[in-house]
Amino acid sequence: MNIPNHIVLFPDGNRRWAKQRGITSLEGHLAGKKKFDDFLHWCKNKGVKTITVFGFSTENWNRPPEEVDYLMKLLEKYLGQGLGNFNKEGVKVKIIGQKEKLPKSLQKIIKEVEEFTKNNNKFHLNLAVNYGGKWDILNAFKKIVEEKIPADQIDEKLLENYLSTAGLANPDLIIRAGGEMRMSNFVLWQAAYSELYFSPKLWPDFTEQDIDMALAEFDRRQRRFGK
Predict the structure, then answer these.
(1) How far apart are CA 138 and CA 102, in angstroms?
(2) Of 37, 45, 60, 136, which one is the catalytic site residue?
(3) What is the pLDDT of residue 22?
(4) pLDDT reported for residue 223
(5) Known catalytic membership, residue 60
């Protein structure tokens, strides 16, 4: 089977899943976090080398303050508790997004995790936190302008070196759980030729069989890149 090297994940549907069960959104997010642990394990065992997951978008700040605060603490706890396992499993962790706007305690643990895992090379995990695709592209152009790079030297390859995903191959497969069929301002440049797979399953209900179905669909597709 042709396994994608780089998968982008939208773990969507935690709040709807919780509402269906009459529990709080916070409990839904916790269930989603546990499912993500399983997802990483499945992908790593199947030969995927890089996962980029949408953890918190620039638009998510508009959610209720209690929910935002819980998500920040959940991310902080996930990174802090996972540090030992990341190193054990050879996982390099990188957080992409506007990190300077995150809570100071979360910024601190992000810095620690990125530093302690920077030499790992068996698997790459990119967590998008306070990230937006438009921001990523705009920020890249701002850096180029600041460095006064002549216009005739600016091409796609150069721009990609200024994106938050610099150094990584563009995603081969994008999986979105939860039944929605849109990109929601995520990795807009990087996804130009990615294969898209939409699952009706709400994220906490996602199973290994669902990832197998996504990989089988990817294997069936012919990627021609416009040729």
Answers:
(1) 19
(2) 60
(3) 98
(4) 81
(5) yes
3-state secondary structure of 34: helix
Asked whether residue 76 is assigned to any structural domain, the reply reads yes
Ranges of residues in the chain whose predicted pLDDT is under 70: none
Based on the number of CB atoms within 10 Å of its own CB, is 60 exposed (0-12), middle (13-18) or buried (19 or more)?
middle
**CA dihedral sign of residues 106, 107, 112, 113:** positive
Assess whether 155 carries a catalytic annotation. Answer: no
**Is residue 177, in this structure, part of any structural domain at all?**
yes
Q: What is the CATH number of the domain that holds 89?
A: 3.40.1180.10
- The pLDDT of residue 226 is 78
pTM comes to: 0.95
Answer whether residue 225 is part of any domain: no
Q: How many domains does the chain have?
A: 1
Contact 215, 46 (CB under 8 A): yes
Is-contact 194 174, C-beta < 8 A?
yes
Residue 189 lies in a domain: yes
Catalytic residue among 12, 136, 172, 210: 12
